Every structure is written in structure tokens, then in C-alpha cells.
Amino acid sequence: MSATSRRVGFIGLGKMGSAIAGRLLDAGYDVTVWSRSPGKADDLVARGATLGDAPEDAIATGTVFSMLSNEEAVRQVFTAERIRAAPEGFVHVNHATISPEAAREFAANGGGYLSAPVVGRPEAVVAGKLAVLVSGGADVRAATAPMLAAIGRRVWDFGDAVDAAPTAKISVNYLIIHALQALSESITLLQHAGLDAGRFVEMINDSVFPGPVYRGYGDAIATGSYTPPGFTTTLGLKDLNLALGAATKLGVELPTGPVLHDVFATAVEQIGADLDWASIAEVTRRRSGGGLP
């Protein structure tokens, strides 16, 4: 691989973006980073990344990864003017969780485009356990395959349609949202019976529900520990709305959707918009006459 092909850009340096950019650095890529909050790049620059003065610097590498908070942020950064000025063969690898419609919009803006939402928290990225869901043109998938392999444990290929991977990611997050509410209800019921919620979480992880969702979020709910957030309630509500919007467009009824929307909207307004999304449990607790354990 040539020195040029080892150059990549990364835009969006929240916890997930910083962790993914760090994986690219560890794999030997020359990474130019940019963030609206320059201080977020300090650790990566100390590890060898180049700090860009503007998005154009990251885009100029020819292959730019982004992890931005929502599709409007993507629009603001990846403008038509910036894409027109990008080098020949430019590719944008978008890790954000966005709507299928937005993925089609971004792919139509020019250049190469790959939908590449991820499944996992920042600690999973660092541990090399991230799952990457991809869809887009076969040539773009092939060109970025080595980089994506450096980011995660496994890359799940959903084919040519750029809206496929976003739909899959929305569906994953909808499952997690259900798990959060199910844990909230079960743990609230258990605690009202005077039982040990921590032991309950340990038991389900050793039997029917092993894995990071029921372990990590179960422990958070059992102890009422929601900071620092791995994923905020505000972002959770955004992703829930993406699922509900996709269902409407596809003519699919999601019977639990309105209930979950009420819980999340209440949590954002009354519990804490910037707490971890496991804090939706406090809505069920308060409605059951309780509060933080």
C-alpha cells in the first residue's frame, strides 16, 4: 500500500469518534483529524495524528471517516462545495446513525460514499470488539475494507444499497431501547419486592441474557449510575425517532413505539438530557413511587 493510501481523515471526535480514530492510528494510518471543539483532538495529536484547521484538511486526504451526532451535523460539514473540491476518488465513510433517506441523500452528493454505522460503546472500540455495519458500492466497500478491519472485530456487509446498513443500525438500537425499558421495569419490580437488584443482574447475565447490554445497563440501572454517559438520552430519543420514522415510511406498525417515545421524551425533559440513556429507568421508578436507589 502506498504512502498516499495510508492517509485518511477523521471528523467528529466525541468519545466514539476519538476511539475509532485511535484504532486507525494504531494500525499505522496517517490520520488528519478535525473537530468543532479543537481540544478534543489533543490526545490523538499526542499519539501522532495531524490536527486540521478546517474540515477541508481532513477531506483533502481523499478518504475521510466521520462520526457526527446526527444527519444535520453531517450536512453542515460535508457541504456540496467541500465535496466538489475534494480530490479525485474521494470517499466518505459515515459512521453516524442516520435515516435511510439521509444516507441516500449523502450518496447522491458526489464522490464515493459508504454507510458504516457501528455497534458498540467506546470501550468496545478500544478493546477491538466493535461491529461495523456497511453498505454502499462494491468498489467503495473493497477500497475501505482494510481500514474497517482495523477499526472493529467484524465487518457486516449489507450490500450495495447505501440505506441498508442505516436501517440495520436503527433496528439494533430499537432492540437496545427495548432492553433498557425491560430492565427498568424488571428491576423496579424486583426492588419494590425488597430484593437485591445487583444479584438479579448477575443472575440474568449468567443465564438467559449474557452480554454487554444486560450487564452494563443492568448494573447502571440497579445502582442508578448514569454518568459519565456512554450514549445520552437525547441521542437515544433521536435514534428512537429514526426507528419510528422508518416504520411509518415502510408501513410497519411498532406497537411499543409510542410508549417508548413517551418514556424517552419524559426522561429528556425531567431526568436528564445528557445522562446515559439507561437513565430512562428513573421514569419507571418515579411512576412507581420510587427514585434513585
Please count the helical segments.
14
By DSSP, the count of extended strands is 9
**CATH topology value of the largest domain:** Rossmann fold
Any idea what the CATH architecture of the largest domain is? 3-Layer(aba) Sandwich
Q: What separation lies between the terminal Cα atoms?
A: 55 Å
Q: Helix/strand/pairing class, anyone?
A: alpha/beta
Backbone shape = globular
Summarize the biggest pleated sheet.
9 strands, mixed
Structural domain count:
2
Topology as a string of helices (H) and strands (E) = EHEHEHEHHEHEEHEHEHHHHHH
| CATH class identity of the largest domain | Alpha Beta
Name the beta content range: 5-15%
Main features:
293 residues; alpha/beta; Rossmann fold; N-(1-d-carboxylethyl)-l-norvaline Dehydrogenase, domain 2; 2 domains; 9-stranded mixed β-sheet; 9 strands; 12% strand
Please tell me about this protein's structure.
The chain contains 14 helices and nine strands. It is of the alpha/beta class and 293 residues long. Strands 1, 2, 3, 4, 5, 6, 7, 8 and 9 form a nine-stranded mixed β-sheet that branches. Helix 2 links the parallel strand 2 (30-34) and strand 3. Helix 9 (164-192) crosses helix 12 and helix 9 packs parallel to helix 14. The termini are far apart. The model has no long low-confidence stretch (mean pLDDT 95).
List the helices and strands and how they pair.
Elements: E1 7-11, H1 15-26, E2 30-34, H2 42-46, E3 50-51, H3 55-59, E4 63-66, H4 71-77, H5 80-84, E5 91-94, H6 100-107, E6 112-115, E7 118-119, H7 122-126, E8 131-136, H8 138-151, E9 154-157, H9 164-192, H10 197-205, H11 212-223, H12 233-250, H13 257-272, H14 281-287
Parallel strand pairs: 1-2, 1-4, 2-3, 4-5, 5-6, 8-9
Antiparallel strand pairs: 6-8, 7-8
Helix pairs in contact: 9-11, 9-12, 9-14, 10-11, 12-13, 13-14
